[in-house]
Amino acid sequence: MSLQETERQLPMFELRFADRLNPNHELLRAAQLIDWDSLQDTLSKYYSLLGRSGKPIRLMVGLHILKHRYNCSDERAVEELHENAYWQCFCGFEIFQTGVLLEPTSLVKFRNRLGAEGMKEIEAVLLKTWGQMGLVRTKKIAVDTTSQPKNIAYPTDADLLHRIREKIVCQIKRVREEVALKKPFRPFNRASKRMLLGIKKFHRKDPEKRVQATQRLRKVVTGVIHQANRVVHTLYNRKRRDLARPLHQLASLGHRIVQQTGAVLQGERPNHRVYSLHEPEVAAIRKGKSHPDCEFGSVVTLGINEDGLILGHQEYQRNVADVKTLDPLLKVVQANTGVIPPEISADRGFSRALETEARWSRRLGIKRLAIPRKGKKRHPEHRAFWFRRALRRRIGIEPVIGHLKQDHRMNRCRYKGWVGDTINVVLASLAWNTKKLVFLSWLKEEKQAQRALLRAA
Question: Is the pTM value of this prediction over 0.85?
Answer without folding.
Answer: yes
